[in-house]
Amino acid sequence: MGGKRFTAPVTVHIFLREDDKILLLRRYQTGYEDGNYSVVAGHLDGGEQVIEATIREAREEAGIELSPEQITITGIMHRFSMDERIDFFVTATEWLGEIYNAEPHKCDELAWFSIHDLPQNTISYIKKAIELSVSRSEIWFDSYGFENKEG
């Protein structure tokens, strides 16, 4: 039992919603899923809570300010994609400021899409999380990607 303990990256994904629309961003020059749509997201820096990371990422990527009261935890996903990860999904329907692309070196488009008609090139686990969030009123949990894991 004295060996190295397993750790997994932890990410927060933000569903910015206006009625039946969701804000998606197209990844650009990141080396991961470039050209595909995702949502505002980022890793926890360590020593910060999920809500704090949500506020920071919304500011860094979309130029908006969120308060803790504007954030609702929507779901949690234990995911395997080249490595094992834990993802938190949160929703906000109100914020301060105008949304803009604050990281054009990582994102070449921010656009609103219907939650019922997502682009074909939406990252698969993001699409699954949106579908779960739309179809359930309570916080959901899902495992994703383990069926493709080797070993």
TrEMBL record:
The lineage of its organism: Bacteria, Bacillati, Bacillota, Bacilli, Bacillales. SUPFAM superfamilies: Nudix. It comes from Brevibacillus laterosporus. This is NUDIX domain-containing protein. Belongs to the Nudix hydrolase family. InterPro entries: NUDIX_hydrolase-like_dom_sf, NUDIX_hydrolase_dom.
